[in-house]
Write a structure and sequence with these properties.
Blueprint: H1 20-29, E1 36-39, E2 49-52, E3 72-76, H2 84-96, E4 100-108, H3 114-118, E5 125-129, E6 146-152, E7 160-165, E8 174-180
Length: 194
């Protein structure tokens, strides 16, 4: 689910729920028929994992996703404020340590930051979303671009970049693969058809 803390929202809104169609497409694409084991930043009513860390958890030890251990397959849509780099670092470290097999993070694209270069660029995949995410209950897309960052155990430090267009209701999933991206170059791709 995740909480989006931009510090720029005039409404004061701090929680933004990931669209279920994005999660459904991810589960199919990542071949996770049983779903995510853990949602590291959620609420009981919005978690996309079998277990979650969140401020409303009945057990105090499970209220802070940054403090606890992650395991199995993890989804996280973390707070987007100044502390977002801590979440990228946590995702990277949980996979590198072997505690988590897979971490998928929905993050704003922000390549001008230290956390992006230090942790996101060590991910297995960076999926640049072809359209802006419309969070649950919002009338239009977010005012920023997002990417799905995927860290896989035993596959860190491989920079694989793709454009990804998850299906709208009633559409089938399609992705446009740009292949592995050398560290010294960025590969472009034609604009999406459709």
């Amino acid at each position: 689910m995740g909480r989006l803390l931009t510090g720029k929202e005039p409404s004061g809104k701090t929680e933004w729920q990931t669209p279920p169609e994005l999660i459904a497409a991810l589960l199919v694409d990542l071949e996770l028929p049983l779903g995510f084991a853990l949602d590291a930043a959620a609420r009981v009513d919005t978690s996309v994992g079998h277990f979650y860390y969140g401020l409303d958890h009945e057990h105090e030890a499970y209220r802070d996703g940054l403090a606890g251990h992650w395991w199995g397959s993890v989804f996280v849509n973390p707070p987007y404020g100044r502390g977002i780099g801590k979440w990228a670092r946590k995702a990277y470290e949980e996979v590198e340590s072997g505690r988590a097999q897979l971490v998928v993070a929905l993050l704003p694209v922000n390549s001008s930051t230290h956390w992006w270069h230090r942790y996101v660029m060590e991910a297995t995949e960076i999926r640049l979303l072809e359209r802006r995410v419309t969070f649950v209950g919002e009338p239009s897309g977010a005012p920023f671009e997002n990417a799905l960052i995927i860290w896989r155990r035993h596959q860190l430090h491989r920079r694989y970049l793709m454009g990804w267009n998850w299906p709208r209701v009633g559409e089938s999933s399609r992705q446009q693969d740009t292949g592995s991206v050398p560290e010294t170059a960025v590969q472009g791709r034609p604009a999406s058809q459709g």
